[in-house]
Amino acid sequence: MKLSKNNYKKARDFILTNARMIERRLFQFHFENHGPDGVFHAVYAYRNSDGGFGHGMEPDTASPESQPLFSIMALETLDEAGLLTKDRILDDFMPYFESITTDKGGIPWMFRPLGDYPCEDHFKTVKEWAALSTTAPLLGILEKYNIEIPWMKKAEEFVWQEIERIKEKHVFCHLCVPRRLQFLSHTKSKNKAERALKDLKKWILTEGVLCNDKSDVGWGLYGKPHSLCYAPAPESILNPIFSQEMIDSDLDELIKRQKEDGRWDTWYGLSEGMKLEWAGIQTLWTLKTLKNYNRIEM
Question: CB 188: neighbour CB atoms within 10 A?
Answer without folding.
Answer: 9
